[in-house]
Amino acid sequence: MKRVLITGANGQLGLALQGAAKNFTLDLIFMDKSVLDITNAEDIKEVFATQSFDVCINAAAYTDVDGAESNKALAFVINKTAVETLAKACKEHRCWLMHISTDYVFDGTLDRPYVPADTPNPLNVYGASKLAGEQAIESVGGTYSIVRTSWLYSQYGNNFYTKIQAQLDAGKTLRVAADQKGCPTRAEDLSAHLLTGIAEAKLEKGISHYCGSEVMTWLDLARRLFPKEEVLECGGARPLAVRPNRVVLKNNNS
Ligand SMILES: NC(=O)c1ccc[n+]([C@@H]2O[C@H](COP(=O)([O-])OP(=O)(O)OC[C@H]3O[C@@H](n4cnc5c(N)ncnc54)[C@H](OP(=O)(O)O)[C@@H]3O)[C@@H](O)[C@H]2O)c1
């Protein structure tokens, strides 16, 4: 049975992978930040020296898009330097690295869906740090899959769905912005895509895109997820990080 290490196990994707685990004949080893801090090179060395893995899914990341603007160094330490260390360990131990990246590597100026070969041009620090992580993996080499996704949501962790649910639970009127368009992606679907890709050894090597098939705004998504609730459009608080108006990834599966 294939042994798969999952870093960042308590994040949204990590938890979704834990939820999907029972559907796959894989030996999944989940490590959260308290067990494996990916910024600690010695810890990475130790884990790979004492255990063997066929695959490592890196679900650990610095994901606070606005926070990255004032925490650039930390965003790069987690999203670039630590990813490079992980890539080197994977290469040395012949482990297939499966890394998750983002639509934020693009600027949104193309009026057609983005394919993996399109030129990235991140508009904010988060996107730049994730692009730097991709480039670090490419320059280390070894066996890797970089899966770019967009607008992850699920019942797990801290994301659009759980934030809206918390507002409903607090009896607040829902107000959601409609100034951005993208392809919302269920974290459960991404988890199944990754685990199927491992179980059947068919996940594309190099860079690929995986996202939901519909283009919509956050307002559209809120109305879709909570059809019985009134959701009002609002201008949205001015974000710290510049965001592209519209990024549609061309899904490798479509
Ligand atoms: N969420 C989205 O909409 C979205 C869209 C496109 C791509 N992505 C990408 O998808 C991946 C998964 O995102 P997500 O939504 O699951 O993010 P998330 O919920 O923020 O999970 C990230 C996890 O990484 C952990 N982490 C942070 N620093 C770490 C470190 N030094 N060592 C180990 N773990 C660390 C975090 O722990 P703490 O919280 O304790 O720091 C958190 O549990 C990321 O690569 C992200 O860039 C996400």
At CATH level 3, the topology is: Rossmann fold
Mean pLDDT: 96
Major beta sheet summary: 6 strands, parallel
Give the strand content.
15-25%
Structural class: alpha/beta
Strand order in space, largest sheet: 2-1-3-4-5-9
Key terms for this structure?
8 helices, 254 residues, alpha/beta, 10 strands, single chain, two-stranded parallel ribbon, Rossmann fold, 36% helix, globular, six-stranded parallel β-sheet, binds NADP nicotinamide-adenine-dinucleotide phosphate
Describe the model:
The protein is α/β, with parallel strands linked by helices and 254 residues long. It has a single domain (3-157, 185-209), classed as Rossmann fold, CATH 3.40.50.720. The chain is 36% helix and 17% strand. The protein has helices at 12-20, 41-50, 67-70, 72-92, 125-140, 160-169, 187-199, 218-225, and strands at 3-7, 27-31, 55-58, 96-102, 144-149, 152-153, 174-177, 185-186, 206-209, 231-234. A 6-stranded parallel sheet has the order 2-1-3-4-5-9, with helices on both faces. Helix 1 crosses helix 7 and helix 4 runs parallel beside helix 5 (125-140). The longest helix is centred in the N-terminal third of the chain and has 21 residues, at 72-92. It is globular and about 55 Å long. The mean pLDDT is 96.
Gist?
The chain is α/β, with parallel strands linked by helices and 254 residues long. It contains eight helices and ten strands. The chain has a single domain, classed as 3-Layer(aba) Sandwich (Rossmann fold), CATH 3.40.50.
